[in-house]
């Protein structure tokens, strides 16, 4: 059992040093996240007037800046960043489907594919898996979700979905938040078998989804540019699959085919350069999350786990 979270806190972040602590599911140990672009995030989401009134509105609400930065990562000369990035963040090159030399830009490296054996998919039609590599929070009943980034504030489902019928349907459903860092594998996959519908784009700003930013602007997850796809599943009802864009990630690419049946673990799409987030919404009484995830999330601690590993099972 993990030690209790200090009273009055949201997700585990050292307020002075902005350290982000998560649980590594493979080892069970707490680790500090190494943040890519930490100085930029602390400057952008700082408490000074310059950041609040000028920098943040410019970067978040004007897509020009994210687009221009994203274009720079697609230039050939950005390849020089690949080796230092791999070294500094200990990226496992043995998982790559293609050799490093084949990447023509930093973005090519960022959206890399992995060898199939690098992410084995948990078998069983009654089992659901994580859709992406990342730091995850799970909530069995969305109606009771509050305080996971800022204590006492409820998640705004109405803003997220922008659809009253869906709000009513998923009001007491289950939710998964999978936060991807720039250091992660950035392709996302289907957590269970089913038939995906068409993706619907809801435009919005491009705030960072790092907890440093989320503690300052809790509404980010429900307001950022996002794409919602309904998935008619064989065991879990209608799943809502939501990709959330972030700073420098205005580009959410879909690689799946709407109305074509998919298998658990099939690729759905990928995020281009930057940190980003996937949110899954299940109908009420459809899923039972793995107990370790429930316990850790209840303490406002994210769990790092890889795509394809167990997240829960069908509720009988």
TrEMBL record:
InterPro entries: PS_Dcarbxylase (IPR003817), PSD-B (IPR033177), PSD_type2_pro (IPR033179). Is synthesized initially as an inactive proenzyme. Formation of the active enzyme involves a self-maturation process in which the active site pyruvoyl group is generated from an internal serine residue via an autocatalytic post-translational modification. Two non-identical subunits are generated from the proenzyme in this reaction, and the pyruvate is formed at the N-terminus of the alpha chain, which is derived from the carboxyl end of the proenzyme. The active site is at residues 133, 189, 276. Its EC number is 4.1.1.65. It is an enzyme of class 4 (lyase). It is found in: Cell membrane. It catalyses: a 1,2-diacyl-sn-glycero-3-phospho-L-serine + H(+) = a 1,2-diacyl-sn-glycero-3-phosphoethanolamine + CO2. The modification Pyruvic acid (Ser) is found at residue 276. The record marks 275-276 as: Cleavage (non-hydrolytic). Pathway: Phospholipid metabolism; phosphatidylethanolamine biosynthesis; phosphatidylethanolamine from CDP-diacylglycerol: step 2/2; Lipid metabolism. The keyword Membrane applies. Its main location: membrane. It is a peripheral membrane protein. Its cofactor is pyruvate. One of its GO terms (molecular function) is phosphatidylserine decarboxylase activity. Belongs to the phosphatidylserine decarboxylase family. PSD-B subfamily. Prokaryotic type II sub-subfamily. Heterodimer of a large membrane-associated beta subunit and a small pyruvoyl-containing alpha subunit. This is Phosphatidylserine decarboxylase proenzyme. It comes from Candidatus Neptunichlamydia vexilliferae. The lineage of its organism: Bacteria, Pseudomonadati, Chlamydiota, Chlamydiia, Parachlamydiales.
């Amino acid at each position: 059992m993990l030690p209790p979270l200090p009273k009055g806190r949201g997700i585990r972040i050292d307020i002075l040093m902005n350290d982000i602590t998560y649980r590594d599911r493979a080892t069970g140990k707490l680790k500090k996240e190494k943040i890519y672009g930490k100085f930029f995030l602390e400057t952008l989401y700082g408490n000074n007037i310059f950041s609040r009134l000028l920098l943040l509105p410019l970067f978040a609400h004007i897509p020009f800046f994210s687009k221009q930065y994203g274009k720079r990562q697609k230039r050939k000369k950005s390849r020089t960043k690949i080796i230092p990035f791999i070294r500094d963040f200990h990226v496992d090159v043995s998982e790559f489907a293609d050799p490093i030399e084949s990447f023509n830009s930093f973005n090519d490296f960022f959206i890399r594919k992995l060898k199939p054996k690098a992410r084995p998919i948990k078998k069983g039609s009654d089992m659901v898996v994580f859709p992406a590599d990342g730091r995850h929070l799970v909530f069995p009943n969305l109606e009771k979700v509050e305080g996971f980034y800022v204590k006492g504030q409820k998640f705004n489902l109405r803003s997220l979905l922008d659809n009253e019928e869906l709000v009513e349907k998923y009001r007491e459903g289950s939710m998964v938040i999978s936060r991807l860092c720039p250091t992660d594998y950035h392709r996302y996959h289907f957590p269970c078998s089913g038939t995906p519908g068409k993706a619907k784009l809801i435009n919005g700003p491009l705030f960072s989804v790092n907890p440093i930013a989320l503690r300052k602007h809790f509404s980010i997850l429900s307001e950022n540019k996002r794409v919602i796809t309904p998935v008619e599943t064989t065991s879990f009802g209608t799943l809502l699959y939501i990709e959330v864009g972030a700073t420098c990630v205005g580009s959410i690419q879909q690689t799946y085919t709407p109305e074509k049946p998919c298998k658990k673990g099939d690729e759905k799409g990928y995020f281009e350069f930057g940190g980003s987030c996937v949110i899954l919404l299940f109908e009420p009484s459809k899923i039972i999350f793995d107990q370790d995830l429930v316990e850790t999330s209840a303490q406002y601690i994210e769990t790092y786990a890889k795509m394809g590993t167990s997240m829960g099972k069908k509720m009988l």
